[in-house]
């Protein structure tokens, strides 16, 4: 009966990294690597020969202190044993050498220096990385500012970065392999190599301008102790920007003191270290290697596990460190309980990673065996279900009437003898079965009821008749009446092995891909059998299976159509069968691509590339020139935040089509991305660089948009194509792009677009440069207006929007304006419209518009109160900026009005003066006596009197007038 192992015991033995094990457990579990391929050497070995790990150890030990540097590469796929070999070398080299093992866990600044400083006296440890956070931030700011001043560029960009420097400083202590720039950093100008500046600043700030002094001091110190240091780097890719420093010193073969064993994944070596790689990544290193040792084939298969016994010994060592189980002592398990040798062999051949075969020790031990030991069900049950690291089991025996537990036992532990699957009794009893009856294998003799399953209607006779007709068609060219059965078998096989309907990359394995699918024929594949009496589909592609194909293949497909079996391992030579099917499918896909090219006027790859370019262009508002590195990177920016999706067209009547189709393009962005990934990617995170660069070189935006604008959607409506995941037809996919291109082609870039972009840009610059003065002027006018009795509120203070972000936006806009003429006219339209819409919606522009409205309101109120006085004329706020002299004039006028708040109003003074002049004509002496008492010589002086003085004067005049009316002369 199955009893799970203790997870704590399993965790001590099965570790992801070799360095995580205790040395005793490592020694017990280590399996000798007796097959290591020598693919390059300068130490007397033969290229192409296999050596063991002890030969590698002997080569490293053949050196003395202060000998010149020597470099050894250990190359292999992920999980092939690079860290295992480095760990073994560390334990073996301790007697005569000084191993310095830098694992992936130590691939950060403090970890690397700790390893090196451990073996140095305190007086030689001159570098430190324990600086306070605020000190790091200040040093970064100072270094970047000085660098910008020294080179005369990028100073404004450095000012934008100041708020982000604390985050950058925090990231310095992360593992260097994961050191990434914050995603929200403002984009660097094209002429500012910010990444190089930052790494230079990091080295200087942390005292790591070069590791050479530390390495040289370590070599000299250990030489005095009679030892030679051996640097063991599990994976050079984890060292980030320190990689160049290390390699510069290590590959200086004249420098004394070090042996360096460097682990490399095959993909990294191919990309960075070949002669055709990037020189900045040290493409010359191959010529300076002492030797290159390879642990695995590029397909993922590990060399030192090439024999079943090697695999069994590896797993037996690990399982032997776990508590023994009496139930697993049977010889049938060979010390591998709960696995048998047969089960291990099958597990190893079924290993996959991301859908691709990957036979490595890590995948077997860490991803498959380790988790299965701690589950409540035995491994043959849990591993029989869907598993991310195992290929789905394919049954080769009749299993329809068997429970899943028994199917798993037969599949993993069963041994084939005499046409049947047998499970050893000892194995069956260990899992609670007395015995398991043998089950016949598939295929069985032709016509057997086991082949077709136990059904009431035995199809044997019909099958035999179809076989005779097939043979007559193949040999004599006779008609084939039962060809539909052959088509059904071919279709079942194609659906199991290939996907011929989809137009996609031949090595595609990406979850985010959503390819175009050929749908003619409904649910059935369009299969055509020439010269069989079959009718060929007109005008549309089909899969051709002529009678000249190998007879055995067609007979097996016909038998498969009648069989109740659901798996494809019943074919005698499945590899050859798959190759034939791939050739047929390839011809079919080529026909489909030709058909699409006739419908759309350009190859499907060009159409998909152009659709994704157009979608990215309208979403980002950038020109996306494929001849520049910035354009290529922007095109591959798959994940855009909602705030990064730009709008180019407002919902105005004249722009309604462009606005609607622009929104539809953004809504379809995920669909276009799925198409792009399906054609230009191997996996989700792995692109086909050759195909991508080819399309970048050939892509012409103007030609593409012209072709798209003239595309007939009505002609596409009957085309049998749709996107597999979204279920959108070809017409639905292309319609927004076609309508947008047609409307854009009809739109002529107007002077208004450029002028309004320039005006808004100038307003933004004005707001940034004179924000303080405008703020003060608005507050002063608001205060004076309230003193004059007006009701008017100034806009909010500009401090709510101030940050380095807007200065960066302004510089980007100005750069885009300078580069405007370098883009095709069809691109200029979107760039101009996007920048205009983008700038009009940002906070500084909204604030500046509020300042203009405030000024206009104050001017209107002033004109209503004082219609005689006019402020200096100016243009409307829609076409010009508010200048400080405008606000100054208004403030001066309001200040004068405030100072005259106690003066008799002008119209009252004028009316009073007229009345006094009339009275003086008849009552000269009386009126003049009243005026004299108040010091007024003439009526015109009334306008210069205060309210208080005027009220007393008017009271005396009124009293005098009443007296004269009561006592006429």
TrEMBL record:
Q: Which domain of life is it from?
A: Bacteria
Record-linked InterPro entries:
P-loop_NTPase
Record protein name field: AAA+ ATPase domain-containing protein
């Amino acid at each position: 009966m199955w009893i799970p192992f203790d997870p704590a015991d399993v965790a001590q033995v099965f570790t992801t990294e070799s360095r995580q094990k205790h040395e005793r457990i490592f020694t017990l579990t280590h399996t000798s690597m007796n097959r290591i391929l020598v693919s390059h050497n300068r130490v007397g070995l033969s290229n192409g020969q296999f050596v063991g790990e002890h030969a590698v150890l002997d080569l490293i030990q053949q050196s003395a202190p202060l000998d010149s540097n020597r470099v050894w590469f250990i190359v292999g796929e992920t999980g092939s044993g690079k860290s295992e070999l480095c760990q073994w070398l560390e334990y073996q080299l301790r007697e005569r050498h000084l191993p310095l093992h830098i694992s992936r866990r130590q691939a950060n600044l403090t970890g690397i220096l700790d390893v090196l400083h451990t073996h140095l006296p305190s007086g030689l440890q001159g570098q430190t990385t324990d600086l306070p956070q605020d000190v790091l931030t200040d040093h970064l700011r100072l270094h970047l500012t000085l660098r910008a001043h020294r080179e005369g560029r990028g100073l404004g960009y450095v000012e934008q970065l100041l708020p982000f420097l604390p985050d950058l400083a925090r990231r310095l202590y992360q593992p260097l392999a994961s050191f990434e720039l914050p995603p929200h950093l403002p984009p660097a100008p094209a002429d500012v190599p910010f990444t190089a500046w930052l790494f230079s600043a990091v080295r200087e700030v942390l005292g790591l301008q070069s590791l050479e002094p530390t390495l040289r001091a370590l070599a000299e110190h250990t030489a005095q102790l009679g030892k030679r240091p051996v640097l063991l780097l599990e994976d050079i890719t984890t060292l980030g920007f320190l990689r160049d420093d290390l390699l510069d010193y290590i590959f200086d073969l004249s420098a004394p003191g070090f042996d360096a064993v460097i682990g490399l994944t095959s993909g990294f070596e191919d990309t960075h270290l070949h002669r055709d790689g990037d020189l900045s990544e040290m493409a010359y290193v191959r010529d300076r290697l002492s030797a290159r040792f390879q642990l695995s084939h590029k397909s993922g298969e590990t060399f030192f596990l090439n024999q079943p016994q090697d695999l069994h010994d590896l797993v037996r060592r690990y399982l032997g460190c776990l508590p023994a189980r009496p139930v697993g002592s049977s010889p049938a398990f060979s010390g591998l309980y709960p696995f048998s040798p047969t089960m291990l062999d099958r597990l190893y051949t079924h290993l996959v990673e991301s859908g691709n075969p990957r036979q490595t020790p890590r995948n077997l031990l860490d991803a498959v065996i380790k988790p299965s030991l701690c589950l409540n069900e035995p491994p043959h049950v849990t591993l029989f279900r869907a598993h991310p690291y195992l290929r789905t089991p394919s049954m080769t025996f009749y299993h329809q009437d068997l429970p899943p537990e028994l199917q798993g036992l037969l599949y993993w532990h069963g041994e084939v003898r005499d046409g049947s699957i047998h499970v050893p009794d000892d194995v069956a009893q260990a899992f609670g079965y007395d015995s398991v009856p043998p089950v016949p294998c598939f295929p069985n003799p032709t016509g057997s009821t086991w082949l077709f399953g136990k059904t009431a209607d035995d199809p044997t006779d019909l099958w035999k008749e179809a076989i005779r007709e097939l043979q007559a068609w193949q040999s004599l060219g006779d008609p084939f009446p039962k060809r539909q059965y052959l088509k059904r078998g071919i279709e079942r096989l194609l659906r199991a092995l290939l996907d011929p309907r989809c137009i996609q990359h031949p090595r595609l394995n990406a979850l985010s891909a959503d390819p175009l699918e050929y749908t003619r024929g409904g649910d059935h594949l369009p299969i055509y059998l020439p010269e069989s009496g079959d009718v060929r589909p007109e005008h549309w592609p089909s899969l051709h299976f002529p009678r000249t194909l190998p007879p055995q293949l067609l007979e097996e497909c016909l038998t498969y159509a009648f069989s109740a079996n659901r798996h494809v391992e019943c074919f005698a030579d499945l590899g050859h069968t798959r190759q034939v099917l791939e050739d047929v499918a390839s011809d079919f896909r080529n026909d489909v691509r030709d058909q699409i090219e006739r419908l759309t006027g350009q190859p499907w790859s060009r159409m998909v590339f152009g659709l994704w370019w157009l979608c990215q262009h309208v979403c980002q508002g950038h020109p996306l020139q494929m001849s520049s590195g910035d354009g290529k990177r922007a095109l591959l920016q798959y994940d855009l935040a909602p705030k990064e999706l730009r709008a180019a067209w407002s919902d105005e009547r004249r722009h309604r089509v462009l606005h609607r189709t622009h929104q539809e393009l953004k809504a379809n962005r995920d669909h276009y991305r799925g198409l792009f990934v399906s054609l230009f990617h191997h996996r989700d995170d792995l692109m086909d660089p050759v195909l991508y660069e080819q399309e970048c070189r050939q892509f012409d935006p103007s030609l593409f948009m012209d072709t798209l604008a003239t595309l007939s959607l009505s002609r596409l409506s009957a085309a049998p194509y749709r996107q597999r995941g979204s279920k959108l037809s070809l017409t639905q996919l292309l319609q927004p792009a076609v309508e947008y291109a047609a409307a854009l082609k009809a739109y002529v870039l107007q002077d208004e677009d450029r002028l309004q972009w320039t005006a808004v840009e100038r307003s933004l610059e004005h707001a940034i440069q004179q924000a303080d003065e405008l703020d003060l002027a608005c507050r002063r006018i608001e205060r004076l207006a309230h003193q004059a009795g007006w009701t008017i509120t100034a806009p909010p203070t500009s401090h709510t929007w101030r940050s380095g972000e807007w200065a960066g936006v302004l510089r980007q806009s100005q750069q885009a304006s300078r580069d405007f003429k370098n883009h095709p006219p069809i691109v200029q339209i979107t760039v101009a419209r996007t920048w205009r819409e983008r700038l009009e919606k940002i906070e500084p522009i909204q604030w500046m518009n509020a300042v203009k409205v405030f000024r206009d309101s104050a001017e209107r109120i002033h004109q209503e109160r004082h219609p005689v006085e006019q402020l200096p004329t100016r243009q409307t706020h829609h076409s010009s900026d508010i200048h400080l002299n405008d606000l100054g004039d208004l403030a001066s006028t309001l200040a004068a009005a405030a100072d005259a708040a106690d003066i008799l109003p002008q119209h009252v003074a004028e009316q009073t003066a007229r009345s006094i002049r009339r009275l003086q004509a008849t009552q000269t002496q009386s009126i003049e006596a009243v005026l004299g008492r108040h010091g007024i010589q003439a009526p015109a002086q009334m306008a210069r009197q205060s309210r208080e003085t005027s009220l007393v004067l008017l009271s005396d005049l009124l009293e005098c007038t009443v007296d004269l009316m009561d006592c006429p002369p």
